[in-house]
Structure formats: structure tokens, C-alpha cells
Design brief:
By secondary structure, the chain is mainly α. The chain has six helices and two strands.
Length: 180
Amino acid sequence: MLNDAFPGGDLISEESRGNMLAEYAALRNEITTFLSLQVQFMNWSVVLGAAIAGLFFKNPSFELVALFPLPFLIFGLLYAEAAARIFRVANYIEIKLRPKLIYPADEPSLEWESFIRKKWELDPVLSMGDKWVRLAIFLVPSLVPIIWLMWNGPQSHHRRLVGSLFTLEFILFSSSYGCG
């Protein structure tokens, strides 16, 4: 039985509507899963960073200082990937799925994605806060040892390691601002 039309003039059946609502629920669940993963990535980077720092204070070595940024860099990249996936799913919901589900409804519905995209008074504060949290958790702890390594002048056989760490740091910095 056909009951509604969506843009383009095609009709949508109750079965199709039910399938789209199930897809919508699954996609919202996927976003929630990726948000949980982001929190886990932050937690694990702090835990591993603390463990490596503890090892360094117990037995200081150049290798441990060089190893210290890696958990932050790896989990920072994973965090950025999860943010990109959240953005893709949210974009699909807003642009493709929502118009088919609400047309020609008289009342607005399924507006969460639209609501969070609107400019509202706290947006600049929250956006800046989010970026500072990412800087504080992923970039600062990984940048400090790299600066320390450069300041203390790595041996000639350590120059590639320090260069690689700077490259990874740049990738993390670029991706964290490109995805969020």
C-alpha cells in the first residue's frame, strides 16, 4: 500500500518507510558506537602514555622518550578516523535519508542532525573546547617529547626517528582539524 510521496514524485510504501526508519536507527546507533570509540581512544592514549612515562622515570632512556608519542599519535589518528566516520553517517542521514522519511509531513521530525548543524550561540565555544581537548590529549603529550628530543640533540642514528615522529605529528594535527 502506497501512502506518501518523496521529492522526485515517487511513492514510498509502508514497508519502505519501515526499512528506512530501521536504517535511521541503525545509523544513529553507529554514530553512538563511534562516539564511544573516541572516548576509549582518549582513555587508552592516556593510560599507555602514563605507563611509558612511568617506565621512563624508573629507567630513563632515549628510546623510551622516542616511544612516548606513539600511543598519542596512533590513538589520535584513530580518533580522527572515528570523527570522519561520524561525519559521513550524519551527512548521509541529513542529506539522503531524512528527506525521504519526512516528506510531505506537516510537522518537522527527525531534526537532530539539522539542529546540530545550525549556528547557535554556544557553537563557537563548544567547537573551540573540542579542539582544545583534542590538542591537550593527543598533540601536546606527543609534541613535548619530540621537542625534548630535538633540544637534546639526537645522535646521528636517531635523526630519522625524530623526523618520522614530526611527520606523524603533522598528519595527526592535520587530520584532527580536518575532521572536526
